[in-house]
Amino acid sequence: MFVSISVVLLLLILAVVFTRSGGLKVSHALVCLLLGFFLAGSSIAPTINSGLTATADIVAGLRP
What we know:
Structural class: mainly alpha
Number of strands: 0
Helix content: over 70%
Radius of gyration: 14 Å
Shape: flat
Number of helices: 3
Number of domains: 1
Distance between the termini: 25 Å
């Protein structure tokens, strides 16, 4: 649960920064948002979720 909230917040912050800097137009952000909703409802959603969880576990296990 924490991983998906963190990823959503990170992507939201990046979208806001890109939109304000002019690198991402509002229409592009809406297309990305719709893509996310459609991916979440597709059969590939569990694979994406497990991949993100595994990546978060690897990053959390790194020690500087």
